[in-house]
Every structure is written in C-alpha cells, then in structure tokens.
Amino acid sequence: MPNGVEVIGGFSFRGCDKISEIDIPEGVTYIQWSCFSHCKEIGKLTIPNSTTKIGPYAFCSCHKLTSVTIPGKVARIENCAFAWSGLKSIVIKDGVKSIGKSAFAANKITNITIPRSVTDIADEAFANCRQLENVTVPEGLTNIHERAFVGCSKLLDANGKPRLTRVPSTSKRK
Q1: HSE (side-chain half, CA atoms, 13 Å) at 144
Q2: Cβ neighbours of residue 115 under 8 Å, at least 6 residues apart?
Q3: Of 114, 148, 149, which Cα lies nearest the Cα of 132?
Q4: pLDDT at 97 > cutoff 80
C-alpha cells in the first residue's frame, strides 16, 4: 500500500484471497467498513499508530489472522471489526474508549487485558470466544453489557456470569 493514503475505503479489498500480509502505512487514519473482510489468507496485520477509526466488519472473517494490536488513538473498536477471525492474541493499547458489539466475537483468544481507558464493553463484544479463560479489567470500567461474554463457556462461573479480575488503578485518570 503506498504512502500518502489516509483512508482505506469500504469494501476495497473484501474477499481478496491472495492477500496474506497487510502493512498499513503510517498516515492512514480510517479503515472503513468491511474493507478487508473475508480475506481468508491474511496472517499478518500491522495497524499504524496514526489510525483513529476502524470501521465495522473491517477485518471480520480473516481466518488466518492470529494476532492484532489496536493503537491507542482508536477511540472505539467498531461492531464486528474482528469477528469470526482466527485471533489468539489481542493487544488493546491504552487510549481506546469502547469495544463495540461483537467486535471480537468467535475468536480463539484465551486471555484479554482491557486497558484503563476503556469505559464500555458492548453486548457480545467477546461472544463465543470459547477458549477465553481470563479477562482482566480496570477498576474504572463503568459499563460491561450483560451479554458481553455470552458463549464464553470457559470464562463463566457456576451461575453463568463471567469471572473477571479487576485491577485497581495505579494512577488517577485525567
């Protein structure tokens, strides 16, 4: 992808089975709706720190994608952005404010640490992540929707509620 690109348009690369690696250049601020969805061969993805918005379904159904780091300038991880992919590792940088509905649904992660900047985790954000065993959330997380972890059978207690580890804030939020 050439330098100078700021926006990757919706559906730009949707279903391109020949793409195995994406190195999005610094300067890209917006990855639009479904632009890399159903690219089943993507195994490596680099999202630059300049990115402020990742649209809905942007990387959904990228089955060979095993890890992703979300830059802190992304305010919200949109609905289904990485759903139904092969993610085993997700790093969400401090600065992200909310995680949308089904953003990471049906992935293969076993652990997730939510940064202190996140205040909202939407319905089904991690739904059906059947390998998910540990979730660490910050003390300041104010809203975890009731079904955020629905179908995460290894995470649920005997009453069907998710077992979450709360980490006290080590510094005051600004």
Answers
A1: 18
A2: 72, 92, 93, 94, 95, 96, 138
A3: 149
A4: yes
Contact 139, 119 (CB under 8 A): no
CATH topology of domain 1-168: 3.80.10
Quickly count: other Cβ atoms within 10 Å of residue 154's Cβ: 12
Residues in the chain: 174
Contact 34, 56 (CB under 8 A): yes
Spatial separation of the C-alpha atoms in residues 154 and 162, rounded to whole Å: 9
Nearest 5°: phi and psi at 138?
Answer: -80, 155
What pLDDT, in 10s, does the model give residues 56-69?
Answer: 999 999 999 999 99
Confidence of residue 168 (pLDDT cuts 50, 70, 90): low
Q: What pTM does this model have? A: 0.91
